[in-house]
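Table 4 source record.
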Amino acid sequence: MDELAGTSVAVIGAGFGGLSTACYLADAGADVTVVEKNGQLGGRASTLERDGFRFDMGPSWYLMPDVFEEFFADFGKQPSDYYGLTQLDPHYRIFFKDNEGRRPGRDAPGLDVDTDGDTIDVTPDREQVKQVFDAYEPGAGDVLDDYLAQAKENYEVGMEHFVKEDRPRVRDWMDPKLAEYARGLTLLGSMQDHVENYFDHPKLQQVMQYTLVFLGGSPDTTPALYNLMSHVDFGLGVYYPEGGMAGVVDGMADLARELGVEFLTDHPVSEIKGRRGGFKLETDGETGAVLADVVVSDADYAHTEQELLPPQKRQYDADYWESRTYAPSAFLLYLGVEGDVDDLAHHSLVLPSNWDTHFEQIFDEPAWPDDPAYYLCVPSKTDDTVAPDGHSNLFALVPVAPGLDDTPAVRESYRDLVLDDIAENTGVDVRDRIVVEETFSVSEFTERYNSYQGTALGLAHTLRQTALFRPPHRSSALDGLYFTGANTTPGIGVPMCLISGEVTADYVIDDAR
């Protein structure tokens, strides 16, 4: 492929979207330079190393392995050329803080019934999961098969015709073939409505909806089409990559270098000047300005438009960005712990039986959640290189509203609340065993990643911010400027950003023909 031979491209930001775009453009013959603000590659998938502990600071779930396989295959490679994978068993463990709804009527493997709050293991064994569902709601195991059959169809058709194929204009959706593709798919309504059609028990509904965390939405506002995430969970499995998500970043960066990509780290871009054929990126790095024929931004979309471009070259004004619905930010607590944390799995979720209040405190009336739903990760369960001998690597992630004021006093108080909650609801008390501790929250997402309102993920996948309602890959105001990453289509999540990179590269290549 040499469609872009002789074309220089500057990619702003080395997140997964930027790395993916860089690979595809270099493979097409472009001379690609990735200009990264921070000292590490990977964007939000950065790494914290301290006193023998290594933490993935951002994404920690390796989902949709087929997308990674397809990405590397596009370059004649496979993931195993760069990193190994371990399938997790259980995929994850759920701790319910309290009990709501019918009590389990039978024993089931992976189910620990407790008067204060049950615990469920979701494993790769479908029959085990069905037995847990039947324990809560007779017949729900067979209903799960029906639900997942629909989710699989949504995934296969949706990925092929609605996710991987960008349709940025209304007329693109008028294609008669789409009606044929969409026949039988769950396209309308919310995830809450869809799940309620299958399951009555609130705990079973939560098991089917927790993946919405990866989309940055709530059950009431996320389109029902995203039940395809249940196929991702139950059908495709949950894995841990060798070296954590940082190992995936390293693998993609190695591939990019093999394709001829150059990386400039510690080079914050302060201004985008020029247009197609004559761009100049002003940076604060030692290399100074970077010249390019084409620019692709994997930096925060709002930051790129509002801070790096003059008003006449912006597609949207400040009111547009102010009116958007943003995915949550997060309160992250990275802990190096002496001893084991036996009751926790590699991935664990701690959920109140009614999580409506938590979603309301994120999307409706922003506040620090007083009864939070949160995620715990213990990679040392699988990888003995992430913690010293005799220690555990644990981080907690609490979704919180973007834009919250996270003063030191607020963070210290919330840190205590989270540690108390973990001890009370999982039986794991680490308060007297912490040897390494760091926090990361709204202000760091803003400062480190230029993230609008400190969102951890980007634009939420609401009914009005999906598909053609997300900002475009190609700027309509500045010729030669393109966008990639979570704020574009197909959206939030590492696999989606890989696909976004390919879509963006296709636009660049098509415009050069």
